[in-house]
Amino acid sequence: MDVYDHPTFNMACQQFELVADQLEIPAAERPRLKFPKRSMIVSLPIQSEDGSMRVYTGFRVQHHLTLGPTKGGLRYHPAVSLGEVAALAMWMSWKCALTGLPYGGAKGGIACDPHQLSPRELEHLTRRYTQEMMPFIGPQVDIMAPDMGTNEQIMAWMMDTYSVNIGHSVPSIVTGKPVSLGGSLGRREATGRGVAHLVARAADAIGLDLKQASAVVQGYGNVGAVSAQTLDGFGANIIAVSDVFGGVYNARGLDLAKLNAHVARHRTVKGFAEAEPVTNDQLLLIPCDVLVPAAMERQITGANAGQIQCRILAEGANGPTTPEADAILARRDEILVIPDILCNAGGVVVSYFEWVQDLQSFFWSETEVMERLYRILDEAFDRVWHRARDQKTSLRMAALGVGIQRVREAKTLRGLFP
Ligand code: NAD
Description:
Oligomer: single chain
Structural class: alpha/beta
Bound molecules: nicotinamide-adenine-dinucleotide
Number of domains: 2
Order of helices and strands: HHEEEHEHEHHEHEEHEHEEHEHHHH
Low-confidence stretches: none
């Protein structure tokens, strides 16, 4: 389907085809598994602060509805497009299936630069998008969550717009809300803590002592900053971090408390005094034990995969490693890749907990949330680890294999409606 043509969607399809070959899925069955169930593109006119009208484009892709409602984040970024969102929705499907959640995957986004919008413009854009999506979303249809460029406040506006339309409060329409509106304790930290937890599992497996380890994080946002903070708590030395404006590096380790104070003041890590500047390209090549890409897709490519120098590559972002890079990394036995659909699954798992709590109006303690999260992540890690060992394949192929197989089984059991 040409309509989805985009380097990131093509990359997700390439991964799918590799796994489908391994699982011997007949060619005729593949399009049903691969292509989204439905996609929406909406025009979003809002009045700018200067009084002019600006029209933005919003997207939502629901990949499959076979196992329950769809679930996935909402991204505000200038590069958002239908193909990118479709790829992210497909990965969400495999991720939910891998962790045993009763969801299909979805993703949405608005092509905009949130840094250039005032709070009022952001609110109007979010409400307009939610209004346009009303016929396609619902707690049993499609549930949104934060992703790059969106946060708890955006989720609060979405929940309010949906609830006003319905006539009563519907907290279960979004996850990643403020706790005071029915959000879950631990949701904000879930993805980054999950990344660090799985890094610790992987470190154990390869005999790496995290207390002696150094770590580099690309993308010091929600996922990256919490991953860094948690790894720091495990005793690792965070030597470099970055954001869209650039990176900072200190071989002796960054003082995260001071760095966070700098970020709170300047909204970027750039310019942090106790470090030297690095570009995002340089950052990925810094020798370290743990490298956490936690920003955009397609950062580790055929061009730099041969030069990265880490023991564990922990994919906090979705799709940070291209198939060309994967082929190179497969020949580099010294590097263990924790694939995105496993590594960053903590976010959607706690989003699921939030949805369950909202539907039951019964809320859990943070300890309960975290214990349940780590149990699910540990089970997924063990299943992927053993499958990779048994099938002599990478953790990515094993993780995708579990996810795709589950969705395929569900579709086969439900059959084809005439
Ligand atoms: P965020 O907006 O909180 O942070 C993103 C960070 O990446 C920011 O610091 C931004 O400046 C930086 N960045 C953007 N473009 C960059 C570039 N080209 N180079 C370097 N840095 C860049 O977003 P987030 O929620 O932390 O999401 C980060 C990644 O994690 C995305 O790939 C997202 O899909 C994935 N993810 C997020 C969650 C979640 O719960 N938020 C869950 C699973 C996966």
